[in-house]
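Reference record
================
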Amino acid sequence: MMLSMPLTSQAPPGRRPRLLLVDDQPVNIQALHRVFGSDCQVLMATDGTRALQLCRERQPDLVLLDVQMPGMDGHELCAELKADPLLRSIAVIFVTSQDQPDDETRGLDAGAADFITKPFNPSVVRARVRTQLTLKHQSDLLRELAFIDGLTGVHNRRHFDERFLAETRRAQRTRSPLAVVLADVDHFKRYNDALGHLAGDDCLRRIAATLRSCLRRPTDLLARYGGEEFICLLPDTDLAGAIGVAQLMEDSVRALALPHPGIDGIVTISLGVSAAAQAQGLVEAADKALYLAKAAGRGRVSWVEG
């Protein structure tokens, strides 16, 4: 008998939990699919290499993982997940016919959250999955709070630095382009001097919301980089695509028409863009491009290839 409590309450609002079932025996995957298919998004893989690819592409909440598989086995896959900053938060439960204490210890040492032996009881598996989904959801909420800028509500520099490192490694591994957009509010000190810091804070909040609205993909990241600077990370984006995003940002902030009494005009931003197949030095290149935008008169987009 299966428990009736739904698993959807353990997922972020608006979507069902996403589970990845990994086993080289399709019959075992089918058995687990019968348990979770009605209220979870279920992904399936019959080998470790494909499972790792799905983790990178779809970011499941939890992996139900067999140990003994040809090629990359369950322990190796778990170690790969826990070594990747973008994947290490994915919960892993081993589901295996290995039932010795040493087997369970090895699995937990590899980073698994739980260990279930075959043949499994559907109610027990469901209860353990629910527990891990609840823990992951709570951990994700706390992690999100730690990575949010308190003033603007966008991500903070700490989160950008972590994501940038991970995306740089991914870009190098997959040979895919990566772009950075660095934005600075023009003459912001004069704005604060003229209207006060409360007005300055409100200005930054409105600009942050506007910049965020210009991003279309869930993989794109906007962060407050410091003071009146914002930075945007654009995976799988070439220079032309990044320039398009930056120009949209510049136009959108200009369209706010926020009065700037310090310069007798409106608030504008300057943006520097860099992109490259080799992601090293992208932030430095974007900073150089930002300097060029300011030197050319501010309120515009400049770029260099990293």
